Amino acid sequence: MKKKFWMIGLTTVFMVAMTTVAYAETTVEFTNDNQLVYNTQEMGDAFKGMAPGDQKSQTLTIKNSNSHTTTFYMSAETLDYFERARAASGGLYDIQLTLQPPTGTATKLDELQEMNEDVTGWIAFDELEISYPLMHPEDNLYYLTHTFSRTENKAGSIFMDAGNTADMTDFHTIIYGHNMKNGSMFGLLKKYYDEEFYDENEFFTIYTGDKAYRYEIFSAHTVSETDEIYTIWYTPDENNVEYGAFVDQMKRTSWYDTGVDILNSDKVVTLSTCTASDDQRFVVHGKLVAMYVTE
Predict the structure, then answer these.
(1) Is the model's pTM score more than 0.90?
(2) How, if at all, do strands 131-135 and 119-125 pair?
């Protein structure tokens, strides 16, 4: 059983760009009787009575004390609200959202980038055991047979299409990985054949040096290796008409209805792996639902 709550999940810090520092913490606990219990510190209390020169921050800590898995995440609407609030202030204050990535991820990235400048990030699923360096190659052949340490290996690496921009700013980014029999690389993506598995595993995250990009899966299906789905979109067309049709096709060809809406303004990542058929590929599409600054 899984429950989802549209709320600020993860550690979040609000920064008001001034000088005197005050700190407050809010905790919320999801109990075994399906109740959300907050401590006495209200979310807005940390920002009351701010004098000129004040800087205040607040951290939200979430604990799951329930007997089943619970997913907390921040909706795109919440991020839009923060941006509108910042704009309405006329630039008098700034809001910074800080995501704490999995322990050691930032350190791993730093170390790996020293070893190989092609390392551009890290891709990880919440529950599925897919967690690997993400490569940005000069071509789409090298990392089919080489690890991130440039060692020759038939498992290869997880890598972004060479034509994509490494900083995740493209509207459609394609990421490849082998369907290994032992489940490594993208060998576990085949679990998304099953709608019930999808219902418990809807999200994945891509970490770069200073940002984390959160994606919600909205489609899973097979395609020809020459399908137009392998088209990179850097920016949408005028009025997003063609791009809108492109992402709508992704949703319509899904093997099951995920219930996730896709808009012609959504940025999409396609995860692609091979199948038992030489000319068929299995693809999983996720749309960007949140972007955080990481420490």
Answers:
(1) no
(2) antiparallel
